[in-house]
TrEMBL record:
Gene3D superfamilies reported in the protein's UniProt record: NADH Oxidase
Lineage: Bacteria, Pseudomonadati, Pseudomonadota, Alphaproteobacteria, Rhodobacterales
Nitroreductase domain segment(s): 10-177
Matching Pfam families: Nitroreductase (PF00881)
Biological process annotations from GO: cellular response to oxidative stress
UniProt source species: Paenirhodobacter enshiensis
Protein name in the entry: Nitroreductase domain-containing protein
Source organism, top-level taxon: Bacteria
Entry-linked InterPro entries: Frm2/Hbn1 (IPR033877), Nitroreductase (IPR029479), Nitroreductase-like (IPR000415)
Recorded GO CC terms: cytoplasm
CDD domains: Frm2-like (cd02140)
Length: 199
């Protein structure tokens, strides 16, 4: 059975080897990212996900901020591999910084107290869907990406550098660009360990 959505999801992979080139103008990539996030579902239509989209030198600046934050905690003798990772991410054409707006979450908790304990969970679920939506849209456009999680180490400097509102909580970083190498083969756990079907 052929299904376009499954084909698109199968195409999305983790690409670490990126170039600073794009198959389309940056304005089109920016629109693609915005549209993917705008169309992502969210509980109560809360639209709590936010993004800062960095291209070129701004993306390089981000990975240098992360690099210096990591230098403070990674032992010097082990820093070479960390440094290589930062170089690889900085080599891309850009980075999407994904945030969740905690003011939105708090407002929902206040307005719908019956569900108050669930709104932080709903926010994380919406954020994860937004990340997948952007990642898949980039992949379909011929743009490789990976999802990174260096927060909270660089959060304060990122907020200061790009004027991020205090209520925005950094959840992930996605470096992107045209991939320069094929990803490793994807493996899957056995279906019997993952699924149960009845009826």
């Amino acid at each position: 059975m052929s299904n376009r959505e499954i084909e698109v999801l199968a195409k999305r992979r983790t690409h670490y080897a990126l170039t600073n080139t794009l198959p389309m103008p940056t304005a089109e990539v920016d629109t693609l990212i915005r549209d993917a996030m705008r169309l992502t579902p969210s509980a109560f239509n809360s639209q709590s996900s936010r993004a800062v989209i960095l291209f070129g030198a701004e993306s390089v600046k981000l990975w240098n901020i992360v690099r210096e934050a990591l230098r403070k905690i990674v032992p010097a003798e082990a820093f070479a591999s960390t440094n290589q990772k930062m170089d690889a991410f900085a080599a891309g054409a850009g980075t999407v910084l994904f945030f969740e707006d905690m003011d939105t979450v708090e407002s929902l908790k206040k307005n719908f107290p019956l569900y108050a304990d669930n709104f932080p969970i709903f926010s994380e679920q919406s954020g994860g869907m937004a990340q997948l939506a952007v990642w898949t849209a980039l992949s379909e456009a011929g743009i490789g990406a990976s999802l990174q999680h260096y927060n909270p180490l660089p959060d304060a400097e990122i907020a200061a550098t790009w004027g991020v509102p205090a209520a925005w909580k950094l959840r992930a970083q996605m470096p992107f660009g045209v991939a320069s190498a094929e990803p490793a083969a994807k493996t899957f756990i056995d279906d019997a360990d993952r699924f149960k079907t009845f009826g």
